[in-house]
Structure formats: C-alpha cells, structure tokens
Amino acid sequence: MSARARRTAAVVAVLGLPPLALTGLAAAPASAHGSMGDPVSRVSQCYAEGPQSPKSAACKAAVAAGGTQALYDWNGIRIGDAAGQHQKLIPDGKLCSANNEEFKGLDLARADWPATSVHGGSYTFKYRVTAPHKGTFKVYLTKPGYDPAKPPAWSELDLQHPVATVTDPVASGGFYTFSGTLPARSGRQLLYAIWQRSDSPEAFYSCSDVDFGGAGTGSTGSTPAPTASAPSDRQIAAGADKSTMRHHGHGGDATATPSQQPAGQPSTAPNAPRAAGTSRDLAETGASSGTAYAAIGGAAALALGSAALFLSVRRRAAGAAHRR
Question: Which residue has the higher pLDDT, 48 or 14?
C-alpha cells in the first residue's frame, strides 16, 4: 500500500470512530417493569382473566371505563420521573392508575374487586417482574375504616407503618419475593405497593385488594376471594404483541408511542414519551445520572480526540506534498 493510501485509510478509520462510539452508548439497559403478583394487583388479576372477556364484574367495568389496552400493559403503571415524589404527582382518587389516563379503570371505587384472602401476621409478598432493577419496595395498607366504595386517598393509607419494605431483592422465577407483616384488620382493605428504582427516578405502582374476613366496612361477604393469580408466562407471551410497552413489556421506558398515546393524556404528563437520547432517557433505561453524564463526556472526548487526530493526519499529508 502506498503512503498516500495508508494516510487515506487512517483518515477513514478515525472518522468512523465517533459514530461507532455513540452507537454503543445509545444501547442502554432495559427499563424495569412489573406489578404485585401476591396479593394479586387489580391490573394483574384483570389481565389474567383475559382483557377481551374478563370474568369479574369489576374487571369488566375497568375495561368499559378504560379499554383493554391497560390490561395488555399490565406491567407499566409508572411515572418516569417520580424520584420519590409520589404524593405530589398522584392525586387522591387516582392512586391505582398513578394518575395515568390509560389505567383510569383501575381507580373505580367499588367493593367487588376480586380480593385475596389474608390475615394478620407474617406474609410473603411476590412481585411479578419482567425487567429487574435495583430499588426499594414499600407496601402500605389502608387504615381501619377504609371504605372500598369510595376512591382511595393518601390519607387512608398508613404511610407511617409500611407492612413491607425491602431494598434490592433478588428476582427468582420471574418474581421478587420478600416478607412483611400485616396488622390486624377486618373486611376488605387495599394494599398499595410502590417500587422506586434507585438507578433512575422511575417508579412503579400497584393496588391489591385483600379481604381479612369477618365483619368490616366494605366487606361484601358474598364475593369469594380468588386465589392470587398473576399472569402466567404463557399469558404474558400471548399478549406481548398487543402491549404498547417498548420491547413488549420487557424493557424500555414509555407506556405508549406518540401515535398510541391515550386520548386526553397531555404530552407533558409524567408518563409521556420523550425524545430519545436525552439524559433522562438514559436515566430511565437504567443508567444513573452520573453514568449518563459520563457517557456524554466520553462521547465528547472521543469526538475531540478523533478530530485532533484527523487534523494531524491532514497536516502531515500536506507537509509531505509540499516537500515533493
């Protein structure tokens, strides 16, 4: 190879470095997704019943109010930039949907939601996860006197005494499994789970209806409490192509593409899709803010270094031509 050809090859190689480097940085880890599996969450129960033909009256009403898409997106009740500000971002009456228009059917105040039978004492919680990430789970129970026929409010949750708190549990068999303690209650109550990621501001939410039995406000007595039944692997796979979650619920950070955004949900909502490539995108897909800035800084350094090398090669080539 001639000297000129070698110089040309060097320039081409240098110019190719920045795009390749940036392409590698764009491949961020997958986002977390999930919902409480035991006691089964409202959205998980309704999805397990079948989005197109749910069996329970409550799940039928949820579909009538919000459509079937919310059930196919069962693992995506989230706020991308929550950063622990749950009460600020979610108003009373919209806890189960996390103030997301798509999931509004889950906020219906009614006493016949399928409920899991429980009792006071130790309880093993199982959180169905489709993309694990580090973070903290906190599970709260409603206070005595809770009325399921009224929209749940933050004041009805015993926020001072979570029934379970765990940080960075290890997923096994598709679930995060951790222990907690349920206080003495009677009748129907509501469990509210918050999964706040530590590697991004994103948080996930779920409501689980439980029945402690006995006489109590909101207890129906005639409505049997079904066995907790999060969607099976087969059901998840069967509905994956109908999910609007990026990567069909196994990654990504948006609940819907712009064309699929539910009517009435403004683009400025916490769950609204954002342009790819922003530092918040990096954070929501698993990179910490430090990682995001480091990645951007690394890309800039590569680009500057490549430019300097390119100019050096050009100067040497010009000098050689002048000497000839």
Answer: 48
No. of H helices and E strands in the chain? 8, 10
Euclidean distance between CA atoms 269 and 247, whole angstroms: 21
Written in H, E and C, the secondary structure of 191-213 is EEEEEEECCCCCEEEEEEEEECC
Tokens 């949900």 sit on residue: 265
Domain locations along the chain: 3-27+288-323, 33-260
For residue 174, CA distances in Å to 1, 113, 123, 232 come to 57, 25, 19, 10
- % of the chain surpassing 90 pLDDT: 52
Q: How far apart are CA 21 and CA 279, in angstroms?
A: 17
Residue 249 near residue 233, CB atoms below 8 Å: no
Token reading at 74: 């069962």
pLDDT digits (tens, 9 = 90+) for 227-259: 556 778 888 888 888 888 763 333 333 333 333
Give, in words, the CATH class of 33-260: mainly beta
Q: Which residue has the higher pLDDT, 64 or 232?
A: 64
CA torsion 210-214-216-222 (nearest 10°) is: 70
Burial 217-236 (b: 16+ CB within 10 A, else e): bbbbeebebbebbbbeeebb
In angstroms, the CA 243 to CA 294 distance is 33
The secondary structure element, H or E, covering residue 124 is strand 121-131
DSSP 24: H
Query: Alpha-carbon distance 272 to 287, whole Å?
Result: 19
Helix 57-66 and helix 42-49, axial crossing angle in degrees, nearest 10: 100
Tokens of 282: 């990096």
User: Average of pLDDT values for 165-187?
Assistant: 95
- Measured torsion, CA atoms of residues 183, 210, 89, 155, in degrees rounded to the nearest 10: -50
Kindly state the average pLDDT of the residues 275-292: 37
Q: Residue 158: name the closest of 138, 180, 143 by CA.
A: 143
pTM: 0.67
